[in-house]
Design goal:
GO molecular function, one term: efflux transmembrane transporter activity
Number of helices: 4
Strand content: 35-45%
Family: Belongs to the membrane fusion protein (MFP) (TC 8.A.1) family.
Keywords: Coiled coil, Membrane, Transmembrane, Transmembrane helix
Pfam family, one: Beta-barrel_YknX
Radius of gyration: 44 Å
Order of helices and strands: HEEEEEEEHHEEEEHEEEEEEEEEEEE
Number of strands: 23
Shape: elongated
Protein name: Efflux transporter, RND family, MFP subunit
Helix content: 25-40%
Length: 356
């Protein structure tokens, strides 16, 4: 009986020990799971949503003539005798602007006229001899007559050329417009070279320099609004007519793209004035977008981290229009997908994560 009692006691102790060990195993397993869950990166996600993208580009613009005629001193074939127009004068196409010195040209014309007169006199003498000669002898005078006639034709051609050269010494307007510069010396008060005459067309453009990022959002035909302190309480409108296909370095060394706006309706702002220009770019309909903070650099392109079933996956995307907070996604993800915003730098493609 004593042995049987000891066996029962041993079994109870073994059962208790087994239970305790099993409980410890469960606790250890739960602790491992808890630690593994809490060791996962925590990310914040946002849905890919449909919305209209709107962006306002703000820039300074300068009023410039659509077309200009510029006559520089080094392009003239003779010294300037006098300028025939004054600053602010309206001129018509073909109107004389500058009279160059004609002394040499006039001498050439006079010499050509004298040569023509001599050639015509010589021709008349030979013609008289030809007419007075007997019929049988007229053939003897034909070579002289033909030569004299050719001399007259040559003299007339030289006179026409001399007169044309003289006419070119009067510089005329190639278009109708307003005279902006009239300076016979071609040099300003500081000794810098200036045009002798500059004529600007009445039509005006507003030209602005945009950053490469801003220029990429602008399209020909977009509407611009323009304001200037010189004309308070007035807002002018215009349309984007051209976007330079290249960037140039500005005075600060930053690359800029020239964008031209053509004003609509009455536009009294003078050439050279500065305006504040606003160009609104808007998607025509709701488009798939992601928060700007979801975009990451991916080589030479862009990507987002898409969240699926507790993991994140790096997905290359093609971007469209941008606003201050959102970016249009042309490909890569679709509405309803979730993307990570402000992804950590050490996030790994395919990694398991927790969402906040």
């Amino acid at each position: 009986m004593a042995i049987s009692s000891e066996k029962r006691t041993g079994r109870r102790v073994g059962a208790v020990i087994g239970f305790v060990l099993a409980l410890l195993a469960l606790l250890v397993g739960a602790l491992v799971v808890w630690k593994s869950r809490h060791a996962l990166p925590v990310v914040e996600t946002a849905p890919v949503s449909l919305q209209r993208i709107e962006r306002v580009t703000l820039a300074a613009g300068t009023v410039r003539p659509v077309a200009r005629q510029i006559v520089n001193l080094d392009n003239l074939s003779a010294p300037v005798e006098r300028v025939l127009v004054h600053v602010g004068q309206r001129v018509q196409a073909g109107q004389p602007l500058i009279q160059l010195s004609t002394a040499s040209a006039e001498a050439s014309v006079q010499a050509a006229e004298l040569a023509l007169s001599d050639a015509e006199s010589a021709y008349q003498r030979v013609l008289a001899q030809y007419n007075q000669a007997p019929t049988a002898l007229k053939a003897l005078f034909l070579p002289q007559l033909n030569a004299a006639e050719a001399s007259v034709a040559s003299a007339r051609s030289q006179l026409a050329q001399a007169e044309a050269n003289e006419a070119q010494l009067t510089i005329t307007a190639t278009m109708s417009g307003i005279v902006l510069i009239a300076n016979p010396n071609g040099v300003d008060a500081d000794g810098n070279q200036t045009p002798v005459v500059e004529v600007a067309s009445p039509a005006k453009d507003v030209v602005m320099d945009l950053s490469e990022v801003d220029a990429a959002q602008i399209k020909v035909g977009m509407t611009a609004t323009m304001q200037t302190d010189a004309y308070p309480n007035q807002t002018f409108t215009g349309s984007v007519t051209s976007i330079a296909p290249y960037a140039e370095l500005s005075s600060s060394g930053a690359p800029v793209v020239e964008v031209t706006v053509q004003p609509r309706g009455s536009f009294p702002v003078p050439y050279g004035y500065q305006l504040t220009c606003r160009i609104l770019s808007r998607s025509p309909s709701p488009v798939p977008t992601v928060p700007y903070s979801a975009i990451v650099q991916n080589g030479t392109g862009y990507a987002v981290y898409e969240w699926r079933n507790g993991h994140v996956y790096l997905v290359p995307v093609k971007l469209g229009m941008t606003s201050d907070t959102a970016v249009q996604v042309l490909s890569g993800v679709a509405p309803g997908n979730r993307v990570v915003i402000n992804p950590p730098d050490n996030l790994v493609n395919g990694e398991a994560v927790r969402t906040s």
